[in-house]
Amino acid sequence: MGQPVNVGIVGCGAISAQYFQTIDRLPQLRLVAVADLDLDRARAAVRPYAGVDVLSVAEMMADPRVGVVLNLTIPAAHAEIALQAIAAGKDVYCEKPLAATAVEAAGMLRAADAAQVRVGCAPDTVLGTGTQTARKAIDDGLIGRPVAATATMMTPGHERWHPNPDFYYAPGGGPLLDMGPYYITSLVTLLGPVATVIGAASRTRAKRTIGSGSRQGEEIPVTVDTHVSGVLVHTSGALSTLVMSFDGTATKAPNIEVHGEAGSLVVPDPNYFEGSVLFSKGREDGWQTLPAAAGYVGAGRGVGLADFASTPAGEEPRTSGTLAYHVLDVMESLLTSAHSGAAANITSTCERPPPVDLTEPSQNIDSM
Ligand SMILES: NC(=O)c1ccc[n+]([C@@H]2O[C@H](COP(=O)([O-])OP(=O)(O)OC[C@H]3O[C@@H](n4cnc5c(N)ncnc54)[C@H](O)[C@@H]3O)[C@@H](O)[C@H]2O)c1
């Protein structure tokens, strides 16, 4: 294995701890610096990790040690930080969604092309054994020709547990842009890109109340739709039905089901790396659990960054900006369709990312 890639993290909020842990255990990555608008937060976040510098964003961009900027800011800041990294000649890997709008995301990809640097994006959970085992089952022909899928995410909203949930109810947030990337990236991984969408959306309340942390009880405005339903027409002809909601109380619907002419799969929660894939050939045969047969074993958030950093030059990373842009385009088009009442054609596309063999992350990602 070659030298580890030096990572600089911008944004040390709620999700950053999971990345710190993954980077710490993967020999392909080395965390050299962190930055945040709130430098105290950045200092506290890296306290357990020796030798990591706390910098301003400008200092991070100017730091020649940093090879890839890991952008863990809120969606509204994704493009601004990514463009700074690209202008500094650094690769950038963003948390999802790629940007708050497809226009911003397209600008990022154009700038990266011009600067000959790479853009990657979460979610990487779809590289875990859950989605990858389901994908292998489909690719191996277990369910025959896939014809349909359902995807359901139903919660009362993240303001119950997140101490600063404002961004979930602002442009770039909402159940679709926040949780849709997991589900739609999984559906594209399983069934391929999307050609057309039809959407419907609603918004139940104008305000939400923060349920935890120092701002508990504070009301925040809601400026996005909080229940989105839609149909994705995949290029293959398969139809996916999607429900993404911050307005439901609970659900027993499977996260994702995929139906083929010869069988059906229950696919585990795409917000996690692992989980059981169930397979049925018909009502009389019941459901059997498929053994984990593909994907990164025991993975954590950040494995997609390692996969990205170790993808040879000239090859499309599995967690590519192109895939994330297509997913964002699909989500935005669902909202466009919901507001216009007409189906929306998707102008972007992407390849299904290459499958992941069943491997330990630290073993497989070693080609840099
Ligand atoms: N919280 C989760 O469970 C979770 C899970 C998966 C993905 N994500 C994604 O991760 C990203 C961050 O989410 P979070 O929950 O950690 O948010 P957060 O609000 O807890 O943290 C974001 C951090 O970014 C900093 N920041 C914002 N704008 C900045 C800028 N311009 N320059 C420098 N720093 C800036 C903030 O000061 C804050 O510390 C989002 O894209 C979110 O969708 C979050």
Mean pLDDT: 96
Question: What radius of gyration results from the CA coordinates?
Answer: 20 Å
Shape: globular
Strand order of the largest sheet: 16-15-14-13-7-12-11-8-17
Q: Which helices and strands, and how do they pair?
A:
Elements: E1 5-10, H1 16-25, E2 29-35, H2 39-46, E3 53-55, H3 57-62, E4 68-71, H4 75-87, E5 91-94, H5 102-115, E6 119-121, H6 129-139, E7 146-154, H7 174-191, E8 194-202, E9 207-209, E10 219-221, E11 227-234, E12 239-245, E13 256-260, E14 263-267, E15 277-280, E16 288-290, H8 303-309, H9 321-340, E17 344-345, H10 361-364
Parallel strand pairs: 1-2, 1-4, 2-3, 4-5, 5-6, 7-12
Antiparallel strand pairs: 7-13, 8-11, 8-17, 9-10, 11-12, 13-14, 14-15, 15-16
The protein binds nicotinamide-adenine-dinucleotide.
Nicotinamide-adenine-dinucleotide binds at residues 10-16, 35-38, 41, 57, 72-75, 77, 80-81, 95-96, 164, 178.
Structural overview:
The structure is a single chain. The chain is α/β, with parallel strands linked by helices and about 375 residues long. About 30% of the residues lie in helices and about 25% in strands. It has 10 helices and 17 strands. The mean pLDDT is about 95. The site of nicotinamide-adenine-dinucleotide has 24 residues, from helix 4.
Give a quick precis of the structure.
The protein has about 375 residues and is an alpha/beta fold.
